[in-house]
Amino acid sequence: MDARATVEIVEVGPRDGLQNESAVLDPEVRAAFVDRLVATGLRRVETVSFVHPGRVPQMAGAEEVMAAVARTGPSGERVSHIGLVLNERGLERAVAAGVDEVNLVAITTETFSQRNQGAGVDDVLAATVRMLSAARAEGLSTTVTVSAAFGCPFEGEVSTEQVMRVVREVLPAEPDEIALADTIGVGVPADVRRLVAAVRAESDVKLRAHFHNTRNTGYANALAAVEEGVAALDASSGGFGGCPFAPAATGNIATEDLVYALSRSGIETGVTVEDLIPPASWITEQLGAFEAPALLGRAGGFPS
Question: Catalytic amino acids?
Fold first, then answer.
């Protein structure tokens, strides 16, 4: 691994980290969480989700969160706030709220697509293509997340061809980034290499990866992704997270644990473990959790 390698961390704690927790935090608390994360040096944050609050009450008040968060870092650095968007009404809200990026989601399997988005794969892909065009017209950066790229909680194994069907449909609409998501934490490094190679055989689009640590393979998968040239990795402060519509989809890989593994591997992220532990401890308290899933908050870095 190149000692000079760098990877971008996309902090998803304020969205994916909180959406599956039983506690419903007020918008001002979520905005304060975002600001604490930005203060560590993180510059891309998935800040809000524009889903219907009846389906995911933890994400209610997205507009209030966006109105309250800092738009620059402590030294004036630009912060890119990402909004998760599942439909065209959500995109309208995201534009009005002033997000910098939108993350659009397309799922590989029919059952999960219906459960998560209330529409089949074909309809979701058609809407995603329309939204990519509309978002670009508004000057927003765009990511398409290929959800359940490594396996489906309802249909089981997902083939490379199922993933590439989604990728091929959206590539002509020119997303800025494709994210391969292990939504239920079933993948292993061999799967990472397989899927990255499949996308790279057809496109040089910027790649991002999203891993859950459900079966304790998330960090190995993240390191494999960096070795394969993936430019950005999602992670959640404290290791909180999961999908409300996927049974047993436990937390995302933790930002502080991931940064520790990357740093010790000679990979630059622009943030440090020491700075990341306090916001993770703070959000753990806000959620009323006994302890965060992350381990660095308990063990600390090394050398101490």
Answer: 243
